[in-house]
Amino acid sequence: LLKLNQQKAALDALRPHENKVTEDLDLALLLGELYIANNKAFKTVEILYRIENKFPPNKKIDLLAVKTMISRGKLDDALKMLNGSEHLATDVGFILTKSMLLLQMGELQQADVIADQLLEISNNNVDFLNFKAAVSIKLGKWREADNFTNKVLESDPEHYSGRFNKASILTAQNRFQDVYDIAAKLTAEQPGNFHAAVPVACAFYGVG
């Protein structure tokens, strides 16, 4: 139920029980993540308000707050909070979130350094491999990006971001029909995801 491509179904299952869900920290954090994944970060703000007032300080709450800032476009505030966190040096979740934020901010070389550090921690972690692929795409290292993306999809063929990266790579290769096939599935799985809709439009234009 909670695989990335099924997040809307997971949100639909939890949302009617929001009051009870927020009584349990782990479930509340999950609901907050699902709201972000479904482009409803404003709802995560409400979740954060509840759990910050109900539970003692917790690094998981801090990380959700950072992700919420990023989702709402408050990138500088998110980076400031990450850099000021005592957990940044030791917690992989904080490290990966910072690396993804740096990528989003266009700090490609910094993001690439962290991507390599993450792979040193675990060279078969699909999220680390997928992030390295995303950085390689931004750097225009298409062969490297394809190699890392293939490793992700070999491990998890339904990996949403992995398939998105594959669509980006195929676009660079002018393989528009393949792009359309992938991107159409991504859009069907997350209809509100603007980033998934873009390759569909591009592929349609390329094919047509």
Summarize the amount of helix as a percent range: over 70%
Number of helices: 13
Detail the poorly predicted runs: 196-208
Structural class: mainly alpha
Q: What are the secondary-structure elements, in order, as H or E? A: HHHHHHHHHHHHH
Radius of gyration: 18 Å
> What portion of residues belong to β-strands?
under 5%
Average pLDDT figure? 86
Give an overview of the whole structure:
It is a single chain. The protein has 208 residues and is an all-alpha fold. It is built from 13 helices and no strands. It has helices at residues 7-14, 18-21, 25-37, 41-54, 59-71, 75-83, 92-104, 108-121, 126-138, 142-155, 160-172, 176-189, 194-207. Helix 6 (75-83) runs antiparallel to helix 7 (92-104). It starts with 6 loop residues before the first helix and ends with a helix. The model is unreliable at 196-208 (pLDDT under 50).
